[in-house]
Amino acid sequence: xxxxxxxxxxxxxxxxxxxxxxxxxxxxxxxxxxxxxxxxxxxxxxxxxxxxxxxxxxxxxxxxxxxxxxxxxxxxxxxxxxxxxxxxxxxxxxxxxxxxxxxxxxxxxxxxxxxxxxxxxxxxxxxxxxxxxxxxxxxxxxxxxxxxxxxxxxxxxxxxxxxxxxxxxxxxxxxxxxxxxxxxxxxxxxxxxxxxxxxxxxxxxxxxxxxxxxxxxxxxxxxxxxxxxxxxxxxxxxxxxxxxxxxxxxxxxxxxxxxxxxxxxxxxxxxxxxxxx
Length: 277
Description:
By secondary structure, the protein is mainly beta. It is built from one helix and 18 strands. The model is unreliable at 1-27, 190-199 and 233-244 (pLDDT under 50). This is DUF4249 domain-containing protein.
C-alpha cells in the first residue's frame, strides 16, 4: 500500500560512531569513485570528500588526493583545495553561501585523468515549526521526541537533522550523552519495504540542548535518499551495505558507463535551537 509518510532514520552518535558500507553492485563490480558533497546557503568553507569504494565493510577507505575540485553556479567558479592533514577532504578556498533558486555544478578531475560532474538545484529555505517532545519518565525527567515536521507538505522534500546534547546536565557528564537523528519527508513511499528497519529509541534528560536543522532538498536528491532508505540494509541506524542501483548524480564526462557512488547536493538550511524543559 502506498502511503504519504514521514520517514524516520536515526543515527545515534555516542563516543565515535562510524558508518560502514559494502560497495559492490549487484554484479560485484566496484564503482570508481565515492563523492560526499553538500552545498548549503550558509556562509562557510564548503567541503567535498572523495574516496575509492570499499569492497568490504572492514576496510579503511582509501582517499583520493590531488584532485581538481570546483563548484560553479554558471557565473562564478569556486575552487577547492585539499586539506594536507586530512587527505581526500577538499574545502573551498574562501567562505561563501549558496543561493536558493540556483543550480550548482560540481566538477572533479582526478589524478587518473577521469572527469566527473554533477548538478543539483538548491530549493528555497522553508521556515518550520520546531519539533515536539514528550515526558516519558517523570521520576528521572526523561524526554523523547514525539513529533517532527508538524507543517508537513508532501510536495516539499526535506531532511531534518536533530542534535541532542545533555553532556552539561549533572550526572551525565561521563556517560552516553549525545545523539544525532535524521528525519526525512520524501513524499510517497511503500511502507512495507521499510518497516523492517530497526530504529533507535532515544530518551534524554531535562536540560538537554536541542538543535534542529531543516534542509530543503531537491526532488533529485530526495529520489536518491528514497532509494537508500528503502533498499539499504540498516542496523540500529548504521549503514552496513549500499544498494547497487542507488543512482548517483555524478557522471563521468568521458564515459557514462563509469559509475560513481554518493551524491552532490545543494540544500538551503534553517536552524532552530532549544532546551528540553
